[in-house]
Amino acid sequence: xxxxxxxxxxxxxxxxxxxxxxxxxxxxxxxxxxxxxxxxxxxxxxxxxxxxxxxxxxxxxxxxxxx
Length: 67
Hints:
Blueprint (H helix, E strand, L loop, with lengths): L7 H6 E3 L5 E3 L13 H8 L2 E2 L2 H10 L6
């Protein structure tokens, strides 16, 4: 069986934990950044778990996990 290719866009956007959970970053991070409060900007920095509906697609895009 040939080697599978990693989707480079998914590699940059998702992180797989040691237990196998997939985390994602939040959007709206840079648009109109100056008018957002400091608290709101801090909340964009944390990674949140991926929805169950999307897990299969992202696992296919990242066959070997994210380094």
